Amino acid sequence: MNIILLGPPGAGKGTQATLLVESRGMVQLSTGDMLRAAVKAGTPIGLKAKAVMEAGELVSDEIVSGIIGEALDALPLETGVIFDGYPRTEAQAHSLDIILSERDRTLDHVIELEVDEDALVERITGRFTCATCGAGYHDKFKQPKVEGECDKCHGHDFKRRPDDNEATVRTRMAEYRAKTAPILPIYEARGIVSRVDGMSEMNEVTVAIAAILDGGSA
Ligand code: ADP
Ligand code: ADP
Ligand code: ZN
Asked: Active-site residue among 50, 105, 123, 172?
């Protein structure tokens, strides 16, 4: 099973992808995470992407489709994939079709997380992660069970993304509206789009996604 989680910044894609990885043994391919790793490592891709990401704009289609193809090559065909934050433009959607068919994979579901924009700003500006294991948290919606300690690895260092500020979030939402939302009709024509209310509680969103994946059809 190969699925796309689609939604604006802060919609809950990463949160839900992590849960699917834990519950179903799928693999999450997040272009955002892969690009941040490249920036941190100072690779040629990272050097190109850094300023673009800090501004909240989109990295080039060639770069992201390249890293997605490479990541898929490292996975056995039986492993289901969750695309998180990719594709984000029509060009990327077309590249993904080619990338998948070259590897005998099909796209089973596109799940759109619908969230209103004011909530997104609150979600993004309150978001932080464990610096050791990457577990995701929120100042208001998901604090660690023990204050200052990661639930998963018991680490004590947390970090925030440099692009998780209100000004950059507005740019990222505008990019989503202008470039990413328009790819939905491509998948609607194939009858594989399902919508989930991303404003509900995290576990309700998880239940709604599970129902789609287990229901067989979109
Ligand atoms: P995305 O990957 O779509 O950018 P995240 O999964 O990182 O979004 O979620 C953004 C922030 O909102 C995180 O801090 C996360 O803990 C929180 N969050 C995710 N889903 C929900 C939800 N349903 N209700 C409230 N907060 C949520
Ligand atoms: P969010 O979780 O808030 O939706 P991501 O972590 O997916 O954000 O992406 C962070 C940044 O990385 C984006 O603002 C963009 O600069 C870059 N990026 C990630 N994925 C893509 C992509 N598929 N195409 C272009 N740029 C991307
Ligand atoms: Zn941790």
From this structure: 172
